[in-house]
Amino acid sequence: MIRYLSLAIIMAIISVSCQPSVETNTPSDQTISDKVDSLMSLMTLTEKIGQTNMYNGTWEFTGPVPADNGSQEKAEQIKNGMVGAMINVLSAKATREAQKMAVENSRLGIPLLFGYDVIHGYKTMLPVPLAQAASWNESAARQGAEIAAREAASAGQHWTFSPMIDVSRDGRWGRIMESAGEDPYLSSVMARAWVQGYQGESLADPATIAACAKHFAAYGFAEAGRDYNTVDISDQTLFNVVFPPFKAAADAGVATFMNAFNEINGVPATGSTFLQRDILKGAWDFQGFMVSDWGSIGEMVTHGFARDNKHAAELAMNAGSDMDMESRAFERELEALITEGKVDVVALDDAVRRILKLKYELGLFEDPYRYCDEEREKNTLLARENLKGAREVAQKTMVLLKNEGNVLPLSKEVKSIAVIGQLAASKDIPLGNWRGQAVSNSAVSLLEGVQSALSTQSKVSFAEGYVLSKGTRDFIHELDIQPGNEDGFPEAIRLAKSSEVVIMALGEDCYQTGEGRSQADIGLKGNQQQLLMEILKVNKNVVVVLMNGRPLAIPEVMDQAPAIIEAWFAGSEAGNAIADVIFGDYNPSGKLPVSFPYHVGQEPLHYDRKNTGRPVTNEFDNGLVFWSHYTDAPTEALLPFGFGLSYSSFEYSYFSITPKEKGATITVEVTNSSNVAGTETVQVYVRDMVATVTQPIRRLVDFQQIEISAGETRKVTFDLSEQDFGFYHKNYQFYAEDGAFDVMVGGNSRDLLSMGVTLSF
Ligand code: NOJ
After folding, report:
1. Which of 29, 213, 298, 728 has its Cα between 20 and 30 A from that of 393?
2. DSSP conformation letters of 279-304
3. From 3.30.420.40, 3.40.50.1700, 3.40.50.620, 3.40.50.300, which CATH number describes the 387-596 domain?
4. 749, 471, 590: which is closest to 141 by C-alpha?
5. Which distant-in-sequence residues (6+ apart) come within 8 Å of 491 by Cβ?
């Protein structure tokens, strides 16, 4: 009886206000808002509160499991309309079953929303987000997100908790791997691409999913790079460094935002009215909804900001958090808070309206099971074109860090190659952390990639060599300081000695990065470097392939190894994509999205620092004591932001600036002086020389990625506007100040042509 009642009500709502559904066209906002209003007029207070409640399924946990995680109780609540969304309910079949409980049992039959952390793929793994940012290529990032969305949608998912666009400047922070790195402009470009990739043209297209910009805000500024730690940050940094990627995501139409675990200047992000109501829903007019992070409402008690869960619910809802992920605070406390007048029902209505709007946009009221097609799931997951796409994206993420004597690319005629290192044979580590539903050990290893690139004429041998530290797997904390043993050294050295070339994989386990995986040491763990040095004694022809999810402090490796490729955790097709670069089937085009330090003590390290009154005057120190520098390490980066080589070589000349109304036009000529076609990323940086608030010594404002044939010269033009020369002042006021600017252009943030210009706005 209840079932027929709920279906009848839905049908009535649909027939009053709905036009015939066209799957890939989003109905007009007005139509949706009418539908939401009609539905809300039928809802009780309890049913409205139910929509703000998100539960974890019992399939997988991505946060601490609450003591009272009874699945029976959850099922009852779903049937009673007390659950609006679920996380970690996986597969078309499982989501269909859960959806059925909601749609066929609850009074109004409102469909559930299913969300999952699809961070760099669902089953086919793309490179980790930091790697994708290293492509500096919007269409590659979009392509990666499209593949992830297609697969996730086929497995019943409507919503991903991605992109993570926290500007990250501290290599110790494990979550730097999930980010687009240290720069607000590059992070904004990536944010837009990822949102567009996940959401496509229309959320009504069942091959797309809703995106979630997280973690709002400043989570990447955790003190000392320790995850979840306190954030104390100036308005200047918040407005000009932290906010831009989030604003870009909002402008790109991201459907949802997630707040953050951290406090900012004494106020937990989850309870921050300033962030959620004033900035996001106010200044940016964001129309989607804000989900809490896992348990972050309840954690405001531990922060010392809320007295208890009830007080936390009050603070979170009043501050603009719309959905509660796993704190059970809204579900248990909101009704009383509203009755007591501590939360205005208007705030709840606003939250519910935003949540229902997304459900309508996704087409869930037309067909709650449209993402639950097992046949589609079978045909989509790990489909050939997804793997092909993963390889294409991965190629673009590789960064060539060194190529002394043009060791690379290797000839496919090579007679013997020794592939060395536990990482090189791993079919698991390249999948990365936050690996969705990837099958363990399913990546193409580096060894396999090399083997399949070569004919049987080339002899490929393998030795494990070192023992890798194994990272924090299975959510169990262990101190990650294994010394390693040398048992594998003799075999590795023997093979290196008897081979023409050595390919040696170095880096970290994928579970050394990700949530809760901060590290105090970001050098190579164990005895990896020691083995490299032994191998270099017997064979100088060594190509190092780095696999890692953070910047590494590896000055000795940079100094000693003749050729180095930064391959990150490159996903399902890792080995093939790395081999494409090694053998020259792909000419590397990636650039670092983070500065690599000489020493962990330099962290947080970022290129867009300020000058201070006693600046660093050159790459190392200037020979004097009373200047800003370290006495036991260089001050500048080992490898600067934006750096990356190619098998081509590029020269910059004829740089010119023409001032124009409120801006300037920049031109530069870039010549490919080599005999191979290549791709260069031309970067433009700006410095405001004298300002009412001191400005960074350089700041990326634009870039273009261009292909240049061998011997060709291309003229590149950039139109810079007030947006590029200005910054946010007090009270979130944006404008540029008249006066002198330096404009710089080049292929990385250190080697730049520079020119002064005076501008007025
Ligand atoms: C906590 C993480 O901070 C967040 O990024 C993630 O989306 C949620 N857990 C859900 O797994």
Report:
1. 213
2. IIIIIT---SEEEPPTTTTTHHHHHT
3. 3.40.50.1700
4. 590
5. 463, 465
Query: Is the peptide bond between 483 and the residue preceding it cis, with omega within 30 degrees of 0?
Result: no
Report whether 673 contacts 646 (CB < 8 A): no
Residue in the block written with tokens 């169990």: 476
pLDDT < 70 positions in the chain? 1-27, 58-70, 478-483, 617-623
Residue with the smallest CA separation from ligand 1 atom 4 is 293
Residue-level length of the chain: 761
Closest CA to 434 of 184, 193, 164: 164
Q: CA-to-CA distance for 275 and 264, rounded, in angstroms?
A: 10
C-alpha 707/C-alpha 222 separation (Å) is: 39
**By the 8 A CB rule, do 233 and 242 touch?**
yes
State in words which class domain 650-759 has.
mainly beta
Mapped onto helix, strand or coil, the DSSP state of residue 727 is strand
Residues with C-beta less than 6 Å from any ligand 1 atom: 62-63, 87, 117, 161, 214, 293-294, 515
Q: Alpha carbon 305 to chain centroid distance?
A: 29
Q: Which whole-number Å values give the CA distances from 702 to 80, 640, 669, 681, in the listed order?
A: 52, 17, 16, 10
Q: How many whole angstroms separate alpha carbon 235 and alpha carbon 732?
A: 8
Distance from the alpha carbon of residue 147 to the mean position of ligand 1, in angstroms: 21
Question: 2-378 with 387-596: one CATH topology?
Answer: no
- What is the tens place of the pLDDT at every residue in 352-405? 999 999 999 999 999 999 999 999 999 999 999 999 999 999 999 999 999 999
Residue 179 CA, ligand 1 centroid: distance in Å: 13
Q: Which of 294, 326, 327 to mutate to test the pocket of ligand 1 (most atoms within 8 A of CB)?
A: 294
CA–centroid distance, 125 to ligand 1, in Å, is 18
Alpha-carbon Rg for the chain in angstroms: 27
Q: For 668, list phi and psi in degrees, rounded to 5.
A: -150, 150
E strands present in 369-440: 399-403, 416-420
Residue ranges per structural domain of the chain: 2-378, 387-596, 650-759
Amino acid letter, residue 621: D
Closest C-alpha to ligand 1, atom 8: 294
What is the atom index within ligand 1 of the atom nearest the CA of 161?
A: 7
Hey, which of 55, 258, 437 would you mutate to test ligand 1's pocket, going by the most ligand atoms within 8 Å of its Cβ?
Answer: 258
Question: Chain centroid to CA 32: how far?
Answer: 31
From the centroid of its chain, how far is CA 526? 28
- Dihedral angle of Cα 548, 260, 119, 525, to the nearest 10 degrees: 20
Nearest-angstrom CA–CA distance, 405 and 209:
47
Query: In 10 A of CB 430, how many CB atoms?
Result: 32
Contact 236, 728 (CB under 8 A): yes
Domain 2-378 matching CATH 3.20.20.300: the answer reads yes
Q: What is the pLDDT of residues 40-97, one digit of tens each?
A: 999 999 999 999 999 998 655 566 655 555 677 888 999 999 999 999 999 999 999 9
Distance, C-alpha 286 to centroid of its chain? 21
Termini Cα distance of the chain: 68
State the Cα–Cα distance between residues 303 and 228, nearest whole angstrom.
11
- How many Cβ atoms from other residues are within 10 Å of residue 326's Cβ? 24
Answer for the pair 718, 732: CB distance below 8 angstroms, yes or no.
no
The bridge status of strand 263-264 relative to strand 159-160 is unpaired
One-letter amino acid for residue 30 of the chain: Q
Helix (H) or strand (E) holding 756: strand 752-759
248 φ, ψ (degrees, to nearest 5): -65, -40
Angle 345-350-355 (CA atoms, 0-180°, nearest 5)? Answer: 125
Q: Is the pTM of this model over 0.85?
A: yes
